[in-house]
Hints:
Elements lengths: L1 H10 L6 E3 L4 E4 L16 E5 L23
Parallel strand pairs: 2-3
Antiparallel strand pairs: 1-2
Amino acid sequence: VLMILCFHSASMCPKGCLCSSSGGLNVTCSNANLKEIPRDLPPETVLLYLDSNQITSIPNEIFKDLHQLRVL
């Protein structure tokens, strides 16, 4: 079951980001040359790293489905 969950989370990882499941789902999009926040973030994301990108705005409600998000 754990292998299936890990594969499922990894397959939902946004393009240009790395996902790991250490203490919850960590989505690392650092240094990915992003111009906007990915809209396909997994709903189980706990930590989200977006540093060192070219993001200039945060759309309304972009994080509304990320109920487990603790670190941004």
